[in-house]
Design brief:
388 residues; 17 helices; 10 strands; globular
């Protein structure tokens, strides 16, 4: 089957994923926090960004290569860290990591993934990163760094925009808890999605859980329904914490969750190698601005490499972020939609969708390379004044 004829866009995969996943899993993947206005704000802000198309540029030979932190990548995007991917599909992290390695793009494993760094070692490529939710205990902290490094993860990403658990209201309404408990309500949702139930019935992975943390936690605790066991280990980090990690991690070190331009200089002074502009995909603070709206100001405030995420759903969004100053763009939900819709074929198909969408839009813009992208919204308002 030609996947592009049936699933030509991320939205097609999203629709199929929704039909295949139980409601509690779908709401985990697709929801934001609170009333989900930040989630909607991300999309609306990206849609406001336009380019003037170019004509008479002649045939173009496209080059989408990008260089980031001393490494060359054939494409300017990668896979963002996502907690508990195994809830969406058995072995989801391994499927995504293998596709990323084959494509030569970065893959980021979350501290709260359903597979541990050791589990992932056979599947990752040279561009494997480990995302850290900050443990309070320095011994656990040091051990996590050692485990990630030994498993082959060469870049560390510290997420700093989760000082407390967010209120995922849609998740709560669906009945999902951490760890998932098979209540009659959830069992009814599972029965309505036989493809997902069959996949898990055939799997040998056991009930999805945060395997990286098994070593440090014995038993369960009384936590809010959308919080998880990882919150027992976390602290809200300060600059001393950042400096400790910089001293103890020998390799590229990235801070994820930056939205204020004034934070850029102090992070650079602390030895951070790159900043990740993100509002956590609208999943953490419903009052946050759209990440894309903050990207130009952060770009103007620093010469550090910048990563961008939040709301990206196609190749045109990747070009929008690049034109506004991002060096690398990360996607999370899109790859989960792919896995949920198509299983093992999903992540590679998502990569191909994004690649083809980028090339089609670069052709419209007369941009043979990413450096050739025009200024966003340049002269569009003035041009529209002449439209009758």
């Amino acid at each position: 089957m030609d996947l592009h004829s049936t699933y030509p866009g991320i939205e097609d995969l999203k629709r199929r994923a929704r039909r295949r996943l139980p409601r509690f899993v779908w709401d985990y993947v697709d929801s934001g926090t609170g009333a989900e206005t930040a989630l909607k704000r991300n999309r609306a802000a990206l849609d406001r960004i336009g380019f003037l198309p170019a004509i008479l540029k002649g045939p173009l030979e496209f080059d989408t290569r990008t260089r980031f932190l001393g490494r060359d990548h054939p494409l300017p995007f990668g896979m963002a860290p996502i907690g508990m991917c195994g809830l969406v599909w058995p072995g989801a992290e391994a499927l995504m990591a293998r596709a990323a390695a084959q494509a030569g793009i970065p893959y980021v494993l979350s501290t709260v993934a359903s597979q541990s760094p050791e589990d992932m070692a056979p599947h990752i490529g040279a561009d494997a990163w480990f995302q850290l939710y900050p443990p309070k205990n320095p011994e656990i902290r040091a051990d996590l760094l050692s485990r990630a490094r030994s498993a082959g993860f060469g870049t560390l990403v510290l997420t700093v925009d989760v000082p407390v658990a967010s209120r995922r209201e849609r998740q709560t309404r669906s009945g999902l808890t951490h760890p998932p408990r098979l209540t009659p309500r959830l069992l009814a949702q599972i029965a309505a999605r036989p493809a997902w139930a069959w996949a898990w019935g055939m799997a040998r992975h056991g009930k999805p859980r945060m395997r990286t943390l098994d070593k440090y936690i014995d038993g369960t605790a009384n936590l809010p329904p959308t919080a998880h066991i990882g919150y027992l280990l976390r602290t809200s980090p300060g600059m001393d914490y950042v400096k400790w990690l910089r001293d103890h991690w020998q390799g590229p070190f990235i801070i994820k969750g930056v939205l204020r331009p004034e934070d850029a200089e102090r992070l650079k002074q602390a030895g951070i190698d790159a900043l990740w502009v993100s509002n956590h995909g609208g999943r953490q603070f419903d009052g946050a601005p759209a990440s894309i709206d903050m990207l130009p100001a952060i770009r103007a405030a620093t010469d550090l490499p910048l990563i961008f995420d939040s709301g990206v759903s196609g190749g045109l969004d990747i070009l929008r972020a690049r034109a506004l100053g991002a060096d690398l763009v990360m996607l999370g939900r899109a790859f989960l939609y792919g896995v949920a819709a198509l299983g093992a074929r999903g992540p590679t198909h998502v990569i191909d969708i994004l690649r083809q969408d980028m090339l089609a839009n670069m052709g419209q813009l007369g941009a043979a390379t990413l450096k050739d992208l025009p200024d966003v919204n340049a002269n569009i308002d003035a041009a529209m004044q002449h439209v009758p």
